[in-house]
């Protein structure tokens, strides 16, 4: 059973490894693209750094020319040419011509030939192949020093290789590649195989001979074992990118071309193919945005340098990428229109819902307000009822006691009258009736009323006096009973507002009651028309 299932487990394991490798490759590519974007943002910084170096060299050259130091002036012109050779064609051409004139002036054949080699490379970089060959053919190889011969053969071979790339046919291209390879062999014979220059030339030969595996190993050897310049690193990684493309190792090709593009930016190299080839590969992978961005950068660099051949190469890919980019933009615009329409509809629906919700909320708010007001009214009514019940209970008890006492008194008086009548003591009866102390009974009534009222409204005096200035406030009598003023408003607080009823209870005339009320009302510090409301607002306990 285990033997039968073993192939399945192996297949599953291999699939897992495959997907993990794919995921890792995608992650590495994404990281490198982020690094490229960051480097491109610093492009002006690197370019300014190069221009500052060029500026300093120009000052030194000017000083040497004034001092009439031709040899040093030649060396400085060569330095300036080296800075410009992959940066700006016109300036590189200017300084290489200057070098040639100085070399003739110095009558130094080696410098003359070296200048012509550099002139050939300058023509080559700009795509002027005939001019490059004319310059190189004017140089007698047998008269060159070993170092000059090596450079001569490398430039000569490169010219034929670029001519082969330019033609891209089955007749001239193989011939030019064969010529370039033969010439490069001459350079390899003179190079030390322990130097990066040897392996760079060897790798180029293998790549142009379509020995891709050998070329791959040679370029990787240069990168891994030698300290090389940013420019040489860009050449290696750009070449590796091209080889990986031919080997259908697309992820590796993209990674190498990104590294080459980063190195080109850092070294301010404008005569380059890496970013153009990267754009083409990204386009094939469906990344239209970055492909369009990078092909535009490649065109800007080629234009900046004035590299005719590079512009031709770019012009082959640019219209296709630009067309797809335009289609992509149009699709996005169409999507934006659709999204805008959908968003507008959603906004309108949301607005409609919000209006409906707002109306419902306002309705609920009104209902809530009504309920709150109703609750408040109910609370006020409950409070009033509670007060009324308390007042009623207090005064009902009071009047039960008064009535009981009054009945007892009436019973006593009735018995006394009957006894006096039976005894025919009419004079005593008359004297007894005259001795009925009505005033004393009324005072007793007022005293009971006051004590019960103050029991129900213990804060009445304090709250009442808050309605007046300190000098106009009213105090209780020494015996703790209400004054007439206070008794009038005590009756009003109990709900007895009719002046006639108040007058009868207090045994005063209606005018007297009115005078008392008016006098106090005129002294209040609150609104006079709301004075009674403040009195009625005093709470019972």
Question: How would you describe what is shown here?
Answer:
By secondary structure, the chain is mainly alpha-helical. Among the domains are: 205-306, Tetratricopeptide repeat domain (Serine Threonine Protein Phosphatase 5, Tetratricopeptide repeat, Alpha Horseshoe), CATH 1.25.40; 437-536, no CATH class. It is 82% helix and 0% strand. The longest helix is centred in the C-terminal third of the chain and has 115 residues, at 308-422.
Which properties best describe this structure?
single chain, mainly alpha, 0% strand, 541 residues, Serine Threonine Protein Phosphatase 5, Tetratricopeptide repeat
Number of strands: 0
Which CATH class of the domain at 205-306 is shown? Mainly Alpha
Strand content: under 5%
SS element count, helices: 22
CA-to-CA gap between the ends?
95 Å
State mean pLDDT (0 to 100 scale): 85
CATH topology name of the domain at 205-306, in short, is: Serine Threonine Protein Phosphatase 5, Tetratricopeptide repeat
CATH superfamily of the domain at 205-306: Tetratricopeptide repeat domain
User: What's the order of the H and E elements?
Assistant: HHHHHHHHHHHHHHHHHHHHHH
* Rg computed from alpha carbons, rounded to a whole number of angstroms: 58 Å
Question: Main β-sheet, in a few words?
Answer: none
Briefly note the structural class of the backbone.
mainly alpha
Uncertain spans, ≥5 residues at pLDDT below 50?
Answer: 18-23
């Amino acid at each position: 059973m285990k033997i039968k299932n073993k192939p399945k487990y192996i297949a599953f394991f291999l699939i897992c490894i495959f997907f993990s490798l794919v995921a890792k490759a995608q992650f590495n590519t994404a990281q490198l693209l982020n690094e490229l974007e960051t480097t491109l943002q610093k492009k002006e910084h690197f370019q300014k750094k190069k221009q500052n170096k060029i500026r300093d060299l120009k000052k030194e050259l000017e000083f040497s020319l004034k001092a009439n130091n031709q040899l040093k002036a030649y060396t400085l012109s060569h330095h300036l040419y080296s800075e410009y050779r992959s940066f700006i064609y016109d300036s590189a051409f200017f300084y290489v011509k200057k070098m040639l004139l100085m070399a003739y002036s110095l009558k130094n054949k080696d410098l003359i030939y070296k200048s012509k080699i550099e002139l050939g490379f300058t023509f080559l970089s700009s795509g002027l192949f005939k001019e490059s060959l004319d310059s190189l053919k004017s140089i007698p190889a047998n008269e060159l020093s070993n170092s000059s011969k090596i450079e001569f053969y490398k430039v000569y071979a490169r010219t034929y290789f670029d001519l082969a790339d330019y033609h891209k046919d089955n007749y001239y291209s193989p011939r030019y590649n064969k010529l370039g390879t033969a010439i490069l062999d001459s350079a390899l014979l003179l190079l030390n195989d322990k130097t990066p220059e040897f392996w760079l030339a060897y790798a180029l030969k293998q790549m142009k001979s379509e020995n891709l595996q050998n070329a791959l190993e040679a370029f990787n050897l240069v990168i891994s074992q030698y300290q090389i310049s940013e420019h040489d690193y860009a050449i290696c990684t750009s070449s590796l990118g091209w080889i990986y493309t031919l080997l259908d190792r697309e992820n590796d090709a993209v990674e190498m071309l990104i590294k080459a593009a980063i190195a080109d930016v850092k070294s301010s190299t404008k005569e380059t193919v890496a970013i153009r080839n990267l754009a083409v590969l990204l386009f094939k992978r469906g990344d239209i945005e970055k492909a369009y961005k990078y092909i535009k950068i490649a065109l800007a660099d080629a234009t900046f340098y004035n590299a005719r051949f590079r512009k031709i190469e770019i012009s082959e890919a640019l219209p296709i990428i630009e067309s797809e980019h335009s289609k992509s933009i149009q699709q996005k615009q169409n999507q934006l229109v659709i999204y805008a329409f959908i968003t507008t509809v959603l906004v309108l629906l949301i607005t409609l819902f919000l209006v409906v919700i707002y109306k419902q909320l306002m309705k609920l708010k009104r209902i809530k307000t009504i309920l709150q007001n109703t609750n408040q009214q109910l609370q006020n009514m409950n409070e009033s009822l509670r007060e009324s019940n308390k007042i009623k209970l207090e005064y009902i008890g009071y009047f039960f006691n008064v009535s009981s006492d009054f009945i007892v008194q009436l019973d006593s008086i009735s018995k006394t009258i009957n006894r006096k009548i039976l005894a025919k003591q009419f004079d005593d009866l008359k004297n007894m009736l005259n001795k009925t102390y009505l005033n004393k009974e009324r005072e007793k009534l007022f005293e009971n009323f006051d004590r019960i009222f103050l029991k129900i409204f213990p804060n009445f005096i304090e709250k009442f006096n808050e309605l007046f200035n300190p000098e106009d406030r009213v105090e209780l009598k020494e015996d703790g009973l209400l004054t007439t003023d206070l008794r009038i408003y005590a009756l009003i607080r109990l709900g007895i507002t009719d002046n006639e009823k108040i007058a009868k209870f207090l045994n005063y005339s209606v005018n007297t009651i009115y005078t008392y009320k008016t006098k106090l009302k005129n002294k209040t510090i609150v609104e006079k028309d709301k004075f009674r409301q403040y009195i009625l607002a005093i709470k019972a306990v």
